[in-house]
Amino acid sequence: MADADHSARQVTGVPHRYASEEKVKVSGKRGRARSRQLAEVRMPKKTIPPRKTVRQSQSEITQVVLPNDANPLGTILGGKVMHLVDIVAAIAAHRHSSSFVVTAAVDHMDFRCPIRVGEVIVLKSSVNRVFHCSMEVGVKVFREEQFTNRRRHTSSAYLTFVAIDENRKPKSAPKIFPETTTEKRRYREAENRRRWRISQLRSKQARAR
Ligand SMILES: CC(C)(COP(=O)(O)OP(=O)(O)OC[C@H]1O[C@@H](n2cnc3c(N)ncnc32)[C@H](O)[C@@H]1OP(=O)(O)O)[C@@H](O)C(=O)NCCC(=O)NCCS
User: Which residues, judged by CB distance below 6 Å to any ligand atom, belong to the binding site of ligand 1?
Assistant: First the structure.
C-alpha cells in the first residue's frame, strides 16, 4: 500500500507532507535506498528559498554633509536624507532577497534635529520581517558631531520593498530569522505595521473608486 502511494506521488510530483508519519519498516540496503527516495520526495528544495538572518543583510551608509546637500541655513535637506534612507534600505532588501527590489511604501518620517554641513550622516538599515514578496526594512539615521564623534539619533523610517523577478512581477523572498531580542521585537511589531499599511491602502483604493 505504501509503495503504491509513493509511486502515485512520484507521478504527480506532489511532495507528501506527512511522509515521516508513514510506518515503513524496511531495513538494510533496501531500507536506506528507500529513505533516500522519500527524502527527495519530501524536500522541494527549489521552491522554498532559504531562511537568512537579519545580520546577513544589515547595511550602513556614512557620508559627510557637503554644501551641495544643504539648505540656506547650512543644514542637510530633508529630501537628501530621504534619498539616502531609500538607498540604504534598498541595499538591505536587495542583499536579503538576492533579487531586484522596488520601494512599495515609505511610512511617516520626521527629522528630530538638524545635521550641519561638515558633520557626518550615518544611516543603518535592517530587514525587520519578510511577508511573502514584500519585506519591511527599518532605517535609523544618526548625526555624528564633527569633533566629538558623538552620535545622535535624528530620524527613523520603515519602508516596504517588494522583490521582483526579471519580468518585473513580484516574487517570494527568503524568510528572515531574527536572533537578538531587538530583532525579535522588531519582527513582532512589523506585523501590526503591515496590517495598518494594508488598511490604509484599502481605504485609499476605496476612496479612489
Ligand atoms: C510594488 C509593486 C511591485 C506591487 O505590485 P502588485 O502587482 O500590486 O503586487 P501584489 O498586489 O501582488 O503585492 C505584492 C506584495 O506587495 C505588497 N504591496 C503592494 N503595494 C503595497 C503598498 N503600497 N504598501 C505596502 N505593501 C504593498 C503586497 O502587500 C504584497 O505583499 P506580500 O506578497 O508580502 O503579501 C507595484 O505596485 C509597483 O511596481 N509599484 C511601483 C514601484 C516603484 O516604482 N517604486 C519606486 C518609487 S515610485
Answer: 102-105, 131-134, 160, 162, 164, 170, 197, 201
Closest residue to atom 24 of ligand 1, CA basis: 105
**Candidate of 96, 132, 134, 176 to mutate for ligand 1, largest count of ligand atoms within 8 Å of Cβ:** 134
Pocket test for ligand 1, best of 102, 127, 162 (most atoms within 8 A of CB): 162
When pLDDT is averaged across residues 84-93 and rounded to a whole number, the result is 98
Grid cell for residue 27: 531495513
For residues 49 and 47, give the distance between their C-alpha atoms in angstroms, rounded to a whole number: 6
pLDDT at position 134 is 98
Lowest mean pLDDT among 3-12, 108-117, 134-143: 3-12
Q: Is residue 20 pLDDT above 70, yes or no?
A: no
More confident of the two residues 34 and 120: 120
Supply the pTM of this predicted model: 0.80
- CATH 3.10.129.10 maps onto the chain at 52-208
CATH architecture of 52-208: Roll (3.10)
The per-residue b/e assignment along 13-51, b for 16 or more CB within 10 angstroms, e otherwise, is eeeeeebeeeeeeeeeeeeeebeeebeebeeeeeeebee
pLDDT band at 50 (very low <50, low <70, confident <90, very high): confident
